[in-house]
Amino acid sequence: MDHVTAELLVRTGPDASMGKLMRRYWVPVMLSSEIAEPDCPPVKVKILGEKLLAFRDTNGRPGLVDEFCAHRGASLFLGRNEEGGIRCSYHGWKFDISGQCLELPSVPQLAPRMRIKAYPCIERGDILWAYMGPADAMPEPPGLEWCLVPTAHRFVSKRYQASGWLQAMEGGIDTTHASWVHRFELEQDPMHKRAQANKYIKADKNAVFDIEEAPHGLTIFGRRNGEENSHYWRITQWIFPWFTLIPPFGPHALGGHMWIPIDDESCWAWSINFLPDRPLPEDELQAMKEGKGIHVKYVPGTFIPLANPGNDWLIDRQAQKDNLSFSGVEGFSVQDASLQESMGPIQDYSKEHLVVTDRAIVMARRMLEKAAKELSSGKNPPALDAASQHVRAASVLLDRELRAEEWAKDALASLENPVFSV
């Protein structure tokens, strides 16, 4: 990838082409539980390079505003969340969730003219989302399936990742790595046991890919040898611009990810497990809370993974040598993060050598680049409508004569269909 394209894709600030594109979507900001109660302490938020403050007002409404007071620029994080707004501790200026100044004690008549930046917020799927784009272009709320199921059917977590969003997201659409970095952990993890998929992924390390552009982004068909007369297909969805849906393993929950830039050199990596038609089993839910599966263990009191660049991701060379772990790093998400973070905060794309199995990555880059450039000429980006996000991942054994693309047109055409999982 040339330098100009790379710069376009990785820069996400307010004035950057990719930053403007991302701001046309509802942006996942934080867990709703981080501001659980009315008038609770405010929380600093950095997203897409902007320093913001999240709080819940006296009526329970969430707000996301500029972190700094319009008066002298003091941080409102040090302020008081009280009586319908956040009050600066320096001189008592008070702002509501819309950014309007409610009280200016020293010069009350000026309060109606004073504002700070504020973004509209909604809560969906246990997450606080903000719209950071032009007011007249606000899209429908997110229509991802896991956002719409009952709370008991879903588990959501996030973790800090010390890398740019693009190299992290591209790991989510690269399914060939599962045959390598995750290969020894598949049968030990609670969310991957009892799945036929494990043996196919281990046995056939060279998946063959068919990829289709779709209204939501990309549908990625990964084919491996199955039984004597069948192929094992893993159908992954990339939903523009930063969502993925990963195929389930056996009877376990479906999975999904989001990679949201904090700034150009770090991101929030979100992980979601859900079941469309029933609550998550208690034992699997407990395992998710303990950081197993696609979730992680944290440094206490933070969203930083316990295994992180500062401690070399707790790599265990003996486990690696004894074939207990292929990479020596514990946990699916940290295994992925360790490799992506090892590339540096922003990968040097000029040094990479892509091959045929990287076609989904190439296609996603081209779609992102095209959408960012077309936005500047007034064309709306893809997948803004909720209906286009109504897609599902699957894993399935199909007769060798059948094409997964044809099977998927009917089987995955509606969220009302059953889950297909091997």
From TrEMBL:
This is Phenylpropionate dioxygenase-like ring-hydroxylating dioxygenase large terminal subunit. One of its GO terms (molecular function) is 2 iron, 2 sulfur cluster binding. The keyword Oxidoreductase applies. Keywords: 2Fe-2S, Dioxygenase, Iron, Iron-sulfur, Metal-binding, Oxidoreductase. It holds the Pfam family Rieske. Residues 26-130 form the Rieske domain. The keyword Iron-sulfur applies. InterPro entries: ARHD_Rieske_2Fe_2S, Cholesterol_7-desaturase, LigXa_C, Rieske_2Fe-2S, Rieske_2Fe-2S_sf. PROSITE patterns: RIESKE, RING_HYDROXYL_ALPHA. CDD domains: RHO_alpha_C_DMO-like (cd08878), Rieske_RO_Alpha_PhDO_like (cd03479). Signal peptide: none annotated.
